[in-house]
Design a protein that fits this description.
This protein is an alpha/beta fold and 180 residues long. It has helices spanning 16-31, 44-54, 88-93, 105-116, 129-134, 156-166, and strands spanning 5-10, 35-38, 59-63, 77-80, 97-101, 121-124, 148-150. It has one domain (5-173): 3-Layer(aba) Sandwich (Rossmann fold), CATH 3.40.50.450. Helix 1 (16-31) runs parallel beside helix 2 (44-54). The radius of gyration is 15 Å and the shape is globular.
Length: 180
Protein backbone atom coordinates (compact mmCIF):
# COMPACT_ATOMS: atom_id res chain seq x y z
CA UNK A 1 0.00 0.00 0.00
CA UNK A 2 1.35 3.39 -0.98
CA UNK A 3 2.05 5.90 1.78
CA UNK A 4 1.10 9.53 1.28
CA UNK A 5 3.90 11.79 0.09
CA UNK A 6 4.18 15.41 1.15
CA UNK A 7 6.57 17.76 -0.59
CA UNK A 8 8.24 20.64 1.18
CA UNK A 9 9.42 23.33 -1.22
CA UNK A 10 11.74 26.18 -0.28
CA UNK A 11 15.06 27.82 -0.92
CA UNK A 12 18.52 26.37 -0.38
CA UNK A 13 19.43 29.89 0.80
CA UNK A 14 16.99 29.87 3.71
CA UNK A 15 17.25 32.11 6.75
CA UNK A 16 17.06 30.89 10.36
CA UNK A 17 13.27 31.35 10.62
CA UNK A 18 12.69 29.40 7.41
CA UNK A 19 14.98 26.57 8.51
CA UNK A 20 13.19 26.37 11.87
CA UNK A 21 9.75 26.30 10.24
CA UNK A 22 10.94 23.69 7.70
CA UNK A 23 12.37 21.43 10.40
CA UNK A 24 9.11 21.52 12.39
CA UNK A 25 7.10 20.95 9.19
CA UNK A 26 9.29 17.96 8.32
CA UNK A 27 8.64 16.52 11.77
CA UNK A 28 4.91 17.00 11.19
CA UNK A 29 5.10 15.13 7.86
CA UNK A 30 6.51 12.10 9.71
CA UNK A 31 3.87 12.42 12.44
CA UNK A 32 1.01 12.16 9.93
CA UNK A 33 2.60 9.03 8.44
CA UNK A 34 3.68 10.51 5.13
CA UNK A 35 7.00 10.31 3.31
CA UNK A 36 8.74 13.63 2.70
CA UNK A 37 9.77 14.73 -0.79
CA UNK A 38 12.34 17.53 -1.13
CA UNK A 39 14.95 18.70 -3.60
CA UNK A 40 17.69 17.11 -1.47
CA UNK A 41 19.83 20.20 -1.07
CA UNK A 42 20.55 22.44 1.92
CA UNK A 43 18.49 25.27 3.47
CA UNK A 44 14.75 24.50 3.70
CA UNK A 45 15.26 21.08 2.13
CA UNK A 46 17.91 19.99 4.64
CA UNK A 47 15.98 21.34 7.62
CA UNK A 48 12.76 19.61 6.55
CA UNK A 49 14.64 16.36 5.93
CA UNK A 50 16.27 16.60 9.36
CA UNK A 51 12.92 17.09 11.11
CA UNK A 52 11.29 14.22 9.23
CA UNK A 53 14.19 11.77 9.62
CA UNK A 54 14.65 12.51 13.31
CA UNK A 55 10.91 11.89 13.85
CA UNK A 56 11.23 8.47 12.20
CA UNK A 57 9.94 9.43 8.75
CA UNK A 58 11.18 8.61 5.26
CA UNK A 59 12.92 11.29 3.17
CA UNK A 60 13.03 11.20 -0.64
CA UNK A 61 15.18 13.67 -2.59
CA UNK A 62 14.53 14.59 -6.22
CA UNK A 63 17.84 16.21 -7.12
CA UNK A 64 18.76 18.56 -9.95
CA UNK A 65 22.07 16.75 -10.50
CA UNK A 66 23.18 13.18 -11.23
CA UNK A 67 25.65 12.21 -8.46
CA UNK A 68 23.60 10.45 -5.81
CA UNK A 69 26.07 11.53 -3.11
CA UNK A 70 25.19 15.22 -3.51
CA UNK A 71 22.29 15.20 -1.08
CA UNK A 72 21.93 16.28 2.52
CA UNK A 73 22.74 13.75 5.22
CA UNK A 74 19.09 13.15 6.19
CA UNK A 75 18.01 11.71 2.84
CA UNK A 76 16.99 8.05 2.61
CA UNK A 77 16.20 7.71 -1.10
CA UNK A 78 17.59 9.69 -4.03
CA UNK A 79 16.07 10.29 -7.44
CA UNK A 80 18.86 11.96 -9.45
CA UNK A 81 17.38 13.75 -12.44
CA UNK A 82 20.29 15.61 -14.05
CA UNK A 83 17.67 18.16 -15.12
CA UNK A 84 18.79 21.23 -13.18
CA UNK A 85 15.87 23.59 -12.54
CA UNK A 86 13.65 21.55 -14.84
CA UNK A 87 13.44 18.94 -12.07
CA UNK A 88 11.07 21.32 -10.25
CA UNK A 89 8.12 19.86 -12.10
CA UNK A 90 9.01 16.44 -10.68
CA UNK A 91 9.34 17.67 -7.10
CA UNK A 92 6.06 19.57 -7.41
CA UNK A 93 4.03 16.60 -8.64
CA UNK A 94 5.70 14.02 -6.37
CA UNK A 95 3.75 15.17 -3.34
CA UNK A 96 0.11 14.43 -2.66
CA UNK A 97 0.27 17.76 -0.79
CA UNK A 98 2.83 20.54 -1.23
CA UNK A 99 4.05 22.72 1.63
CA UNK A 100 5.79 26.00 0.88
CA UNK A 101 8.37 27.48 3.23
CA UNK A 102 9.70 30.92 2.25
CA UNK A 103 10.95 30.53 -1.26
CA UNK A 104 12.60 32.26 -4.17
CA UNK A 105 12.18 31.83 -7.94
CA UNK A 106 12.73 28.05 -7.93
CA UNK A 107 10.05 27.65 -5.28
CA UNK A 108 7.71 29.85 -7.29
CA UNK A 109 8.05 27.50 -10.27
CA UNK A 110 7.24 24.52 -8.01
CA UNK A 111 4.15 26.32 -6.71
CA UNK A 112 2.99 26.95 -10.29
CA UNK A 113 3.48 23.30 -11.28
CA UNK A 114 1.72 22.05 -8.12
CA UNK A 115 -1.18 24.39 -8.94
CA UNK A 116 -1.44 23.24 -12.55
CA UNK A 117 -1.28 19.57 -11.54
CA UNK A 118 -4.00 20.00 -8.89
CA UNK A 119 -1.91 19.38 -5.79
CA UNK A 120 -3.21 20.97 -2.59
CA UNK A 121 -0.75 23.69 -1.54
CA UNK A 122 -0.21 24.88 2.02
CA UNK A 123 1.81 28.05 2.53
CA UNK A 124 3.60 28.37 5.86
CA UNK A 125 3.24 32.12 5.72
CA UNK A 126 5.21 32.84 8.90
CA UNK A 127 8.30 31.88 6.86
CA UNK A 128 8.00 34.84 4.47
CA UNK A 129 8.97 34.70 0.77
CA UNK A 130 6.48 33.27 -1.71
CA UNK A 131 4.76 31.40 1.11
CA UNK A 132 3.68 34.71 2.64
CA UNK A 133 2.93 36.42 -0.69
CA UNK A 134 0.68 33.64 -2.01
CA UNK A 135 -0.97 32.40 1.20
CA UNK A 136 -4.75 32.50 0.83
CA UNK A 137 -4.51 33.37 -2.88
CA UNK A 138 -5.95 31.72 -5.95
CA UNK A 139 -3.26 31.58 -8.63
CA UNK A 140 -5.50 31.54 -11.70
CA UNK A 141 -8.72 30.25 -13.28
CA UNK A 142 -7.63 26.60 -13.37
CA UNK A 143 -8.86 25.94 -9.84
CA UNK A 144 -11.56 27.25 -7.53
CA UNK A 145 -9.62 26.73 -4.30
CA UNK A 146 -6.88 28.88 -2.80
CA UNK A 147 -3.45 28.18 -1.40
CA UNK A 148 -4.09 27.30 2.23
CA UNK A 149 -2.59 29.78 4.67
CA UNK A 150 -0.97 28.19 7.72
CA UNK A 151 0.44 31.15 9.64
CA UNK A 152 1.85 29.00 12.46
CA UNK A 153 3.61 25.69 11.85
CA UNK A 154 2.16 24.44 15.15
CA UNK A 155 -1.25 24.41 13.41
CA UNK A 156 0.00 22.33 10.44
CA UNK A 157 -0.83 18.81 11.60
CA UNK A 158 -4.64 19.16 11.60
CA UNK A 159 -4.48 20.87 8.20
CA UNK A 160 -2.47 17.96 6.75
CA UNK A 161 -4.75 15.36 8.31
CA UNK A 162 -7.81 17.11 6.86
CA UNK A 163 -6.27 17.35 3.37
CA UNK A 164 -5.18 13.71 3.46
CA UNK A 165 -8.68 12.63 4.52
CA UNK A 166 -10.25 14.68 1.72
CA UNK A 167 -7.98 13.12 -0.89
CA UNK A 168 -7.37 9.50 0.09
CA UNK A 169 -4.51 7.68 -1.61
CA UNK A 170 -5.78 5.51 -4.43
CA UNK A 171 -3.76 2.81 -6.13
CA UNK A 172 -4.29 1.13 -9.46
CA UNK A 173 -3.83 -2.65 -9.58
CA UNK A 174 -0.77 -3.81 -11.54
CA UNK A 175 -1.20 -4.96 -15.13
CA UNK A 176 0.73 -7.36 -17.31
CA UNK A 177 3.23 -9.81 -15.87
CA UNK A 178 3.09 -8.22 -12.40
CA UNK A 179 -0.65 -8.76 -12.05
CA UNK A 180 -1.82 -11.53 -9.70
Amino acid sequence: MRRPQIGIMGSSEANEIQRSVAERAGRCVAQVGAALVTGGRDGVMQAAAKGCAEAGGIVIAVTPFTPMEQVNEYTHYVIPTGLGWARNVITAISGDIILVVGGAAGTLSEIAYAWMYDRPIVALSESGGWAKKLAGERIDHRREDCIVDCDDVNALEPILRKLLAERPIKTIPPVGRDAP
